């Protein structure tokens, strides 16, 4: 089963503006299945917007900036092929 990313549209409590926020990652075998999961598990305010294929953590680099740490990347595409 794959993981899908969601988004949430809500009013920012600080500015009163409508903003888009990242929501929880949800399981599913397709976009439709992941949206069904949201709709039936109390996450109906979430909209499925994509398939999670990888997570790349960051490490501290030069000048206090962060750089991608590809050696510790979580590749979800490989997991779904097994």
What do you see in this structure?
The structure is a single chain. By secondary structure, the chain is α+β, with helices and mostly antiparallel strands. It has 2 domains: 1-51; 54-82, no CATH class. 20% of the residues lie in helices and 40% in strands. It contains 2 helices and 8 strands; from the N terminus they run βββαβββββα. It has helices at 31-40, 76-81; strands spanning 2-11, 18-22, 26-28, 47-51, 54-55, 58-60, 66-68, 74-75. The strands form 3 sheets. Strands 1, 2, 3 and 4 form a 4-stranded antiparallel β-sheet that branches. A two-stranded antiparallel sheet has the order 5-8. It has a two-stranded antiparallel ribbon with strand order 6-7. β6 (58-60) and β7 form a beta hairpin. The radius of gyration is 16 Å and the shape is flat. The termini are close together.
